[in-house]
Here is the input.
Amino acid sequence: MMARRRSFATVLALWVIGLAAVLVLGIQSAGLGQAFGARDSLAEVRARWAAISGMEQMIAILADDLESPHPTDAYDVYDRMADASEGTIGGGRYSIEHWEGEERFDGPADAHARIHVARMSTEDLFWLPNMTEDLISRIVDWTDEDDEVSPLGAELGSYLSAEHPYEPRNGLMQTIEEMELILGILPSDIRDEDWNLNGTLDPNENDGDETWPPDDADGVLDSGWSGILTVVSAESTYGLSGQPRVRLGLGLGGGELVGRTGITAEQADVIAQYAGTNGATLEALINTPLRSLPGLTGQPIDAQAQPLTDEQIGLLLEEAAIDGPWLDSTGATLPGRININTVSEDTLSYAPGVTSSIADILIRERKGRPLGFRTVTDLLEVPGLTRGRVQELVQAFGFRSSVFVIRSVGIDEASGMRVELIATVDRSRLPVVIRDMVIR
Here is the structure.
């Protein structure tokens, strides 16, 4: 009997010891799990702050360039951002890059290297890959302010009858992926290989059919319409002087132009009076002598006005704006023009009013200008371009950019953990603002 009791006691003791061991191991495992979790959280924080630090570096450079732009070098701000596209901070590092076709570039992507949808006519849209007449009509219906259905188009009724009803924008689109909401437009039209729309050739976008999305594994980022179009570029409210543009209208503002452009007070008065007339544009100065500018009566304001030099015309177009629809109803600036210095050759072929011969002239001239085009004065020097043609081109093209898309990848140096940040940054006015930001 005593032996059985001792045996039972022994078994019980062993069971208690085993249970204690299990509890200790469980506690240790939980502690290790918490430690690993804390370590991962710290690594993510370091990677996240590194990515944010990279974005802030770009914003600082953009803001500084807006107030103190380089007087002659159109590429200066891009070079500065490229030089600062990699850095370290507190155990983390960041890298900022983007792709244009088969070329990788350090620094943010220039939204003005693409064509703003709102600046394209139906004829311009027709030349996009896979574009059809019905899709063009639906794009027009999506963005116009009325509910009248265009031929082959779609308005409110069509969207409300969908399986998951929604309403058309009836205004400017806010993101390029919004185009996928337009009936008939496919995600593949917008994205092609750049399925996550981050402007970078990711490994899964260059491996054939091994992983999504399908791609041809040729080392080239085929971005579909997103590589040609934008909806975020905006006209700058600042001039080359680093000061807000002079807003002309109703005969006001001319005096401020004298110091910035080198024109006389008499010339400034003619320009200010002309700006108060219906349909006046500063681009008219390119091909219309100052002495011929009409006033409110339709007659020349000053038939003896001293002519402007090409340099003065270039500065006037950069430093002034005729008062009018400068802001839309939401307070956003006007859709931006294409930056003639950064647009790719492929995208240039889709630009409004650009023939193949004009595209060839612009690309050839740009390659011979290491400092780029700074003002319309530089365009007027291009052989083969008449003043009338230059006047047409500057309706679609500008020389500086206001909106950039920053893809900043932060990496924790200890663990290798990565965080990707994509932000749309707008410097059309100060302070520079972040329109939207995604961290993943």
